[in-house]
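Late entry, written up from scratch paper. The run itself happened at the end of the previous shift, but nothing got recorded in the book at the time, so transcribing now.
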Amino acid sequence: MTEVGHETMLTTEARNFLKHMDVFLEDSGNTAGKPGVLSRLAIARPLRAGNPEELLHEVFDIRQHGIRYVTVRRQQVFRIGEDVLKDVLSDFGIQISSIGFAGGFTGTLGMTYDDVITDAHCAIRMAHDVGARSLVLLTGHQGLHIYNHAERTVQEGIEICRRLAMDYGIRLLVAANSVLGCRRDNFRPRTSPLLWTQQFCGPELQTMIVVRAGERLPDGWRDVIACGGCLRICHKCESYPEHTDLLNRIISFLSRRNDLAD
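Output as recorded:
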């Protein structure tokens, strides 16, 4: 990103490079001395490397485009190695904004509840060990459960993961809608999904909203960003111009109303 006065914008080259992205606010401690919310607006792009050699090649590209955050899949961490990933990214001044994913408490992603909790513990520890800012947490669809049982299961699972995240100093991003683009990964509450997830929010747990190309920004997106959550511009969609347009609208809105809570 480049700064013009109190406004923040992406260069054309960087926009073309960011085929999909997460949008969030950096913690205020990372931007000491920089006024305004726009100076904290950050973009993360997915890391593509699948081994150490590819990682070394990719980090040059990332830094060339002025990107300081990446999102990483857990499989990539296993293939590259925790120490190698952390050291190489650190050497280039690149941070991991989030690791994905864990969760699926209702069993619709193929694991039992107990296995999901164990797996989430491993994912939280991994996020801590590689210096990630957060871990993406999926709720799981209602499936064959009655509604009340499914809701209670998800709530209990989130609370256990919250306590684990607190122990490791990791922030959880609970998805308010589907991350994988399927019915199996997301619980659909009877109330607003955004309001439902926000009931859990605190310093160690925030909301992620997935916005796909062609969709309007949902009500409440501004509060999600202000409180430490994240907008994910869908990585499944190939409509790159729409991604850029959506990001431009976010930046434009924040430029006009630069009053998000710090």
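The mean pLDDT is 82.
(Scratch paper discarded after transcription.)
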